[in-house]
Design goal:
The chain has 156 residues and is of the alpha+beta class. It is built from four helices and five strands, in the order βααβββαβα. It has a five-stranded mixed β-sheet with strand order 1-2-3-4-5. The longest helix has 15 residues. Keywords: Acyltransferase, Transferase. One of its GO terms (molecular function) is acyltransferase activity, transferring groups other than amino-acyl groups. This is N-acetyltransferase.
Length: 156
């Protein structure tokens, strides 16, 4: 019998898989506006910083392998924005379309509600139609378009 997908708090043992998911996204998409791959020290520091600031990082596991992760962080550093967060959900390229994004987003929304947060924001590249549809399906509404603010793959 095949194991199901499940969500839990990220552990340090998940970080090599999370690093692979991050770097695949950096190499092949505009979901992360970085051009240089990250390393294990980067994701270790990132996880420590998230935990220290009280921000969740969830891993999705399948057959005990980490196949996706989700997190959120402070939207902007000003005090007046303290009830708003910007989230990220990433799934490894071999498990997309299996409902992992939904599991992770639901976990993040539940945690945000429990933390007393008011608004969760998704910063999505305009060409990422799949992510836009996914978020619309989950009640997110387009509220702005920042034109040509990111540069990657030789274009804005």
């Amino acid at each position: 019998m095949e194991a199901t997908y499940y969500i839990r708090e990220t552990r340090y043992g998940d970080l090599p898989a999370i690093l692979e998911i991050m770097n695949e996204s950096i190499r092949n998409s505009t979901a992360i506006y970085e051009e240089e791959p990250r390393n294990l020290a980067y994701v270790e520091h990132w996880l420590e910083a998230q935990k220290k600031s009280g921000m969740p990082v969830f891993s999705c596991l399948h057959n005990e392998a980490t196949v996706g992760y989700g997190t959120y962080g402070q939207f902007r550093p000003k005090y007046g924005y303290r009830f708003s967060v910007e989230h990220s959900v990433y799934v490894d390229e071999f498990h997309r379309g299996a409902g992992i994004g939904q599991l992770l987003l639901t976990a993040l929304i539940d945690r945000a509600k429990a933390d007393g947060l008011h608004r969760m924001i998704a910063g999505i590249d305009a060409d990422n139609h799949g992510s836009i549809r996914f978020h619309e399906k989950n009640g997110f509404v387009k509220s702005g378009h920042l034109k040509e603010v990111g540069f990657k793959f030789g274009r804005f």
